[in-house]
Target: DUF1049 domain-containing protein
Amino acid sequence: MQVVKLVLWALLLVLLVAFSVANWTTTMAGDQISVTIWDGIVWDTRLPAVVVIAFALGLIPMWLIHRGEKWRLKRRINALESAQRANSLNYAREHTETIRDRDGDGIPDSVDPQPDTHADTGEHTPPSPPRTEPI
Model:
């Protein structure tokens, strides 16, 4: 997408330069246009300058609105993601059974090769009955 944006901006720049070269006359008669700003204030300039200023007056407000909207949506997405993350952690804490380590050797029974053998004595203990309450 960045390549497409770069190509479009380069094409716009080439068109603006071509327009400026074609309309930038150096003769003394009629090479400037008069822009009336207020009554009594007249600005004599060349046509490409008027085109660039008009383009900037149209682009800059829309660009600022776009950036503001993008910033607002990014903040909203971050807030929703953090709320979802906190909610999922709370759900996991409430609905996860504690890790079973019956023999007390510090290794959970799910990865312990001998889950029913005590670490200190080495004797075998029978497994506890399975859970009957729903998760």
